[in-house]
UniProtKB/TrEMBL annotation:
Segments forming domain Bacterial purine repressor N-terminal: 4-73
Superkingdom in the source lineage: Bacteria
Record keywords: DNA-binding, Transcription, Transcription regulation
Name under which the protein is recorded: Pur operon repressor
Pfam families the record matches: Pribosyltran (PF00156), PuR_N (PF09182)
Domain Phosphoribosyltransferase: 112-254
Subunit-level organization: Homodimer.
Organism name: Alkalibacterium iburiense
Gene3D superfamilies: 3.40.50.2020, Winged helix-like DNA-binding domain superfamily/Winged helix DNA-binding domain (1.10.10.10)
Keyword Transcription regulation: yes
Family: Belongs to the purine/pyrimidine phosphoribosyltransferase family. PurR subfamily.
InterPro entries listed in its UniProt record: PRTase-like (IPR029057), PRTase_dom (IPR000836), Pur/Pyrimidine_PRTase (IPR050118), PuR_N (IPR015265), PurR_Bsub (IPR010078), WH-like_DNA-bd_sf (IPR036388), WH_DNA-bd_sf (IPR036390)
Length: 274
């Protein structure tokens, strides 16, 4: 049965949004809606223009018999800048100041509305790069990695500090925490979690000395894989030398006044990297 154009446009848009970075042949839509390819092409032009106008990303068309259309979710730089400022306004409250100058983020990382925007913003930085997987450590970085991976449409892997019997054989490394205590800690990853030669994006919630991120970099090297980039939600004030330098941050804790219990959070260098 032939599908009405209005219904076809809604269903097609939903299908594209649910399958980002996936090349979809026009024949799939033609059979799905019992419509000619020319009609499908016209519908895709409408969707493409609307996505671009609303800042939802863009549609990439691939010509030829093996071609099709691919939806690339991406936030415009102006939208990312406005969102990061919104994050700063939300975090610039004394109630969020924790011992050690850390910022309380748990409530925001449990809110879908914040996670979706964070995931979309970080994924926007890597849309033009080849990514096979997103990695994080088993703490509050897990929901961030899941959000980023959903927009890049790749798996996410979780590094643990202690292995589970259900993980099977693992690869483990020792790393220096990077904090003032310089503790030596251990992290592990299941051998089945990451393919050899993968291209990996690292994400985490907070960075101070950089030990955790540096540990994940070392673990990725054990899999003969490549680090595409590392992004954290917020970086803290750190007087010493960080064990990692090549990273981006959405936010930066600029000033902490312990006695007055005030904190100042400003945009990080993420916007400059877009």
């Amino acid at each position: 049965m032939k599908v009405k154009r209005s219904e076809r446009l809604i269903d097609m848009t939903y299908y594209l949004l649910e399958n980002p970075h996936t090349l979809i042949p026009l024949t799939l839509f033609a059979k799905r809606y019992n419509s000619a390819k020319s009609s499908i092409s016209e519908d895709l032009t409408i969707a493409k223009n609307t996505f671009a106008k609303r800042g939802l990303g863009f549609l990439e068309t691939v010509p030829g018999a093996a071609g099709g259309v691919r939806y690339i979710p991406k936030m415009e730089k102006e939208a990312v800048e406005a969102f990061i400022q919104e994050l700063c306004d939300e975090l610039n409250h004394s109630k969020r100041l924790l011992p050690g100058g850390y910022v309380y983020l748990s409530d925001m990382l449990g809110e879908p509305k914040w996670l979706r925007k964070i995931g979309r913003a970080i994924a926007s930085l890597y849309v033009d790069k080849e990514v096979d997987s997103v990695m994080t450590v088993a703490t509050k970085g897990v929901p961030i990695a899941q959000a980023v991976a959903s927009y890049l449409n790749v798996p996410f892997v979780i590094v643990r500090r202690d292995s589970k019997v259900t993980e099977g054989s693992t690869v483990s490394i020792n790393y220096v925490s990077g904090s003032s205590s310089d503790r030596v800690e251990k992290m592990e990853l299941s051998r089945r979690s990451l393919e050899m030669g993968s291209k990996v994006v690292i994400v985490d919630d907070f960075l101070k000395g950089g030990g955790t991120v540096n540990g994940m970099i070392s673990l990725i090297e054990e899999f003969n894989s490549e680090v595409v980039g590392a992004t954290v939600i917020a970086e803290n004030i750190f007087k010493g030398e960080r064990s990692v330098s090549d990273y981006t941050s959405l936010l930066k804790v600029d000033k902490v006044h312990t006695q007055e219990r005030t904190i100042e959070v400003v945009p990080g260098d993420f916007i400059d990297k877009l």
